[in-house]
Amino acid sequence: MRHLFYLQQFFERLPSPAFIKDNKFRYVWINKEWKKTYELDDRKVIGKTDQKIFGNTISEKIESKVIKSKKNQEYEKEYKDKFFRVVVIPIRLGDGTYGVAGIEFDETKRYFNDLVLQANLKVSEIIRELLVSPLESKDFFVERLLDKVQEKMHLEKYALIKNDEIIKSFFPENVCLKAMTKEGIKEFSVNTVKYIVIPFDEYKVVINSSPITLKLTNYIVPLILPKVENVLSMIENEARKKQYYTTMEKMVEAVISWKKAKLEDFLQKVLEDIVQIIPEAEKGTVWLIKDGKYKCIAEVGYKDATKLEFPPEKTSYGQKIEEMIKEGYTVFEIEGAKDLVSTSPLAETFKKYGMFDPNFRPLLGIFKVGNNVIGNISIDNFSGISFSNESKKILEQYVKILSNFLEEYEI
């Protein structure tokens, strides 16, 4: 009997969960590590099956084969955030029937490393696949990347946010709104459902969370993110090159055509080019001082604005333009434009054009001949987006060209 005592001591102190079941798949014995892993004692386990305890019958199918064939079998199982490889062997019980004995080896670390490796390889493969075709924009690439991940890596749902705009979402809006307030990789809850937000570049991706998903995300994202950001940087550089060449072509066209065109036609064409080239631009106007009054010469997006004229003291931005000119600026963005136009003598006129919108942002360029201001160009957006330094430089170059051009005309 001494050998049975040793055997019992061995299994009790085994650093892996171990068990014995009868031919009805009911537990007849569990060791201390099993109780610790599953946080259950003999009273809640002995005499019961996995179906009764955990609500699954996967183990029973494998154990049935072991009892019938009298051969060992292996299977994998997941419990909470752990993964086990279970080795099951046939064992003869005291009543002469056969049951099974099993040892569960914790394979979480290996399984987790395999998942990280597979995810890294799959995302790298998806990126290479996407790079074969032209990428229209950063938004296009990120959305296509997520769609491919959803398809090939069984990602059930996601949301894509850019700055404070929801580009695409399979979740309720309040989930996205809460994600917008988070910094870094964070887990958060909405109505008891857990989500993970993953920020990069100017984007945020939201996915469903679980203990293993959160852990995987924290490991995988640092591996994948540099690859994604490299592609985004490449797309951005290509877009800048394209914008640069387009700008140069339009500027050359403007210089070549200014001798041939009527003043109004020339300025209208140049304004349309500028609104097309500057990414933030939605609308625009060109104003010249004629006979002591500001007159709108060209417009994009402001119907009938060319009928407007008013004395300089009634400018839409009051003394703001004068202040900026005195400080030496020829191109500048006006913040809080809505407050300025709403107190202008021409407030009702500007209200009709939507300039009371709090998101209204104009970028102004001043035309000067010598020390005299002879007009300005206003490039506007209604999205609340600040104009980039590149956009300001583009307008600055056009202001120089147009100022030289206007010097030859009698205004």
UniProtKB/TrEMBL annotation:
Instruction: Write down the Gene3D superfamilies for this protein, in alphabetical order.
Output: PAS domain (3.30.450.20)
According to UniProt, the name of this protein is PAS domain-containing protein
Domain spans labelled PAS: 17-108
Under the heading InterPro entries, the entry gives:
PAS, PAS-like_dom_sf
* Coiled-coil positions: none
Pfam family name, one: PAS_9
